[in-house]
Amino acid sequence: MKADLVASPNAPGKKKREELPLKKKKGFLHELITNRIMFLMLLPAIVFFLINSYIPMVGIYYAFVRFDFNTSLFNSQFVGLENFKFLWKSGALGRLTLNTFGYNLAFIVIGNMLAITCAILVSELRIKWLKKLTQSIMFLPYFISFVILSVIVYNMFNYETGFLNTMLKTFHMEPVDMYSKPIMWVFLIIIFYLWKNLGYSMVIYLAAITGISEEYYEAAKIDGANIFQRIWFITLPMLKSTFVMLLLFALGSIMKGQFDLFYQLVGNNGLLYNTTDILDTYVYRSLKVTFEMGMATAAGVYQSVFGFVLIMTVNYIIRKVNDEYALF
Amino acid sequence: MKIKDEKYHRLFQCIAYTVVLLITAACLFPFLLIISASLTDNETILTQGYHLIPPAFSLEGYRMVFQFPDEVLRAYGVTGLTTVVGTLGGLFFITMAGYVLQRKSFKYRNQFAFFIYFTTLFGGGLVPWYIMYTKYLNLMDTYAVLIIPGLMSPFLIILMKNFIKSAVPEEIFESAQIDGANEFTIYARIVLQLSLPGLATIGLFLALHYWNDWFSSSMFINNPHMYQLQYYLYNVINTISFVTQMGASSGVSLGQDIPTESTKMAMAIIVTGPILLLYPFVQRYFVKGLTIGAVKG
């Protein structure tokens, strides 16, 4: 694309650039009047994002005051960084950051690997109806609410009647109390994440595989490549751009935890916090359970700012390396 | 060479079928557990635990839910209301925004698209958002607060924008304008008709969100009569006093032999039922949405 522009000075892209400043002179107000119907149509969305996102940004200031529900924000007593100091001293910050980051990284790496594997295998199935059926079943958990996930976990792992202990008892083994084994929950959370999201990313990869031209495979067959070589040398390289795109999207929100998943799996079970508490659950709990508003806001702001800096950095690096993949 | 290829091929097919079937079984397994438990006699669950195949078949769990259906029906009503109103409202606003943002004659479309996209990059966090809705908009314990926060999302607006872009040829706008149609008429009469599959996809995404929402109730609702279905279920699972609550609300003393364990599971099935029933018919729209949404716009 870019080489094209340089080569031919009459390319349409260049023309547009010259015309643009002329139009701009008319200004926003003129545009508002001529396109008033379109502005009106966009208005609900603008108002929505103002209320839902932009005006609450002002509330970041809450992190720097002593919270009192009855006084207005700017009449509250300014305390500087006290809330952040408090958060830092509680010792939770490092653990929360590490958990949020670590889980998301595990989700991205394992999730994508499994999705690619499944997509390739499913696409190679010869029986049409089985292909459709397996794909549908793998996609099904994505549609189920996270509350059902907590039902499933209760069904499987509760000490008295859980399926796991039922099985252990039939084989005359000691029943296990999962809720006192924090380390097991690392695996459970990852497994249930995969269970819920495998179908979603698999569908995307499957679409990419369907888009690969048959000709490549035919040519490879004639050259004597077996099925493993065809997958290794054609399918996997062709999936690279999809993978990179999903990866970058995921990296952009690596500080945003999967709140529903963690909260429905772990809930307010203090025994497991060490290995399962992420920033999102911490903020929610401080707000709704322990009512430590100062800490909740401070942790929220920390998450937002840290996440934002990370996205900007990632995007900057991508821009340097390969402009086409940039997020914005 | 040919023979070797055949051998590899057969080996690969074997691996593919085994792995895919195993993973499919693993995906299905939790559902089977719950269905089985909902059909098991409660006494058996208490003494022998949950099984994959009911050791003693019984419909007690379901009977129990339907015996005093008031609570479940009310929660069903709340979720039904929010789902219908939220989906229709959301569709209307999202399609309008998507339409305007892809319109070439709308000069500031990129600026407004970024205005919407930026909210995914940075935000004030949960607490200011919560205070906005409870203190400044005063929407605690209202149906509105169950609907408004889910109406739109940057992802859905961008998805809709791409849908319209790919479904409606540019010339149509020009010819409609020459015929004297204004932008809203073009949107309502032409664009909506042409992007029906897109509408279905976005609508289903919205409906799924509202149906599965438990978070809004847990944040904003104190009145148990206004709990959404999922949050109602969440409370049933997490409260031991469920039975006493049900007994108290129906004015009947229920005694000892209440099938709570199987009732919990039956409740989970009843709550998920509509999704399981509709899933085979709607999943292709989601697949379509994902494949179009994956194209960056």
Automatic annotation (TrEMBL), chain B:
Q: Where is it localised? A: Cell membrane
Entry membrane topology = Multi-pass membrane protein
**Which chain regions cross the lipid bilayer?**
12-35, 75-100, 112-131, 143-164, 184-211, 231-253, 265-282
One GO process term, biological-process aspect: transmembrane transport
Keyword Nucleotide-binding present in the record's keywords: the answer is: no
Q: Record's Pfam families?
A: BPD_transp_1
Task: Name all ABC transmembrane type-1 domain ranges.
Answer: 76-282
Q: Keywords on this record?
A: Cell membrane, Membrane, Transmembrane, Transmembrane helix, Transport
A GO CC term assigned to this protein in UniProt: plasma membrane
Q: Which InterPro entries match?
A: MetI-like (IPR000515), MetI-like_sf (IPR035906)
Family statement drawn from the similarity comment of this UniProt entry:
Belongs to the binding-protein-dependent transport system permease family.
UniProt-recorded name of the protein: Sugar ABC transporter permease
Identify the species of origin. Paenibacillus selenitireducens
Q: What is the lineage of its organism?
A: Bacteria, Bacillati, Bacillota, Bacilli, Bacillales
